[in-house]
Amino acid sequence: MISEAALDRLAGMLRAPDLSGTRYEIVAELGRGGMGIVYLARDTALDREIALKIVDRGAAGTRSDSLDALAHEARILARLEHPGIVPVHDFGELPDGRVYYAMKRVRGERFDRWLAAGRDLADSLTVFLRICDAVAFAHAHAVVHRDLKPENVMIGEFGEVLVLDWGIARTANREPNNQNPEPKNQNREPKNQNQEPKNQNQEPKNQNQEPENQNPEPRTPNPEPIVGTPAYMSPEQRAGAAVDHRADIYALGVMLDALGGPASVAAIAAKARADDPAGRYQSVQELAADVQRFLSGRRVGAHREPLVDRVQRIYRRHRVPILLVLTYLAARVLLLWIGGI
């Protein structure tokens, strides 16, 4: 049976948003997701089309969660100014109580549908490298996507490659850790001031032992809600453990494996999606560099290449000069043979 709160939320999602007092006009609905509706809208101030993501706040029990989730996604996108990531233009609250953010209108085709049309491996890998570039930029800004998959990548009308849907992205664990040293240093000064009354402080020292043992507990990552797409989730993500940028590298490995290709490409994908995070590429740049080496006809670091494969690779890379040399040698042999007749 559907709860009253759920019915209230559904009703709020179905009613048209009140955009009075804003600079936006609804043109059409583009799509619906778990967190809200994306509309095609017109920015009347700049006379351009934008995408407007609106989340309902009608149900009292979900009001805070909806606002926090949308604000989180908007902040993540706002800090990632990159050609491969959709920019956010505006964030706010509508007169009817719903929250929204405005972003660039994206036109194009989803990566999975683009691949379904049948693409050359080199073209697919070129797009894959563009995806890696956007993800590497996010990692450099301490953001982990956590839901990378072909459905969340858009190929634009003019060849743009855009990584979408940052709704469950999170900041990497290293960010909070950098904030810890300062409080630690501040606590040392009182210790030095208490040095003289050493015997008197003996008991408080023992009493403080318990809080010191409790300190590591907050640093241990709490079990996280399992979010993402199962087929692209790393083992640690499926287990609900804290994840870092290597969870995205695992998802990229699954995407790369789906593109097919020779053994060297399969070896790159296998390394990227190793069960142990320490066995994967430790950065997206390392993964992309191996893919680029394959495209350039050079030896791939993740692949132990048999001699026959190495000869074939060298031939493909230097085909023209090799054929010229062989043609020259064949002509010389033919001339010598004719001259000896």
Describe the structure.
With 341 residues, this protein is α+β, with helices and mostly antiparallel strands. The chain folds into three domains: 4-104, Phosphorylase Kinase, domain 1; 108-172 and 222-295, Transferase(Phosphotransferase), domain 1, CATH 1.10.510.10; 307-339. 47% of the residues lie in helices and 15% in strands. It has a five-stranded antiparallel beta sheet, covered by helices on one side. A three-stranded antiparallel beta sheet has the order 6-8-9. The protein has a two-stranded antiparallel ribbon with strand order 7-10. α4 runs antiparallel to α13, α11 (245-258) runs antiparallel to α12 (263-272) and α12 (263-272) runs antiparallel to α13 (284-295).
Q: What's the helix and strand layout?
A:
Elements: H1 4-14, E1 24-32, E2 37-43, E3 48-55, H2 63-79, E4 88-93, E5 99-104, E6 108-110, H3 111-116, H4 121-140, E7 143-144, E8 153-156, E9 161-163, E10 170-171, H5 174-178, H6 181-193, H7 202-207, H8 209-214, H9 216-219, H10 235-238, H11 245-258, H12 263-272, H13 284-295, H14 307-317, H15 319-339
Antiparallel strand pairs: 1-2, 2-3, 3-5, 4-5, 6-8, 7-10, 8-9
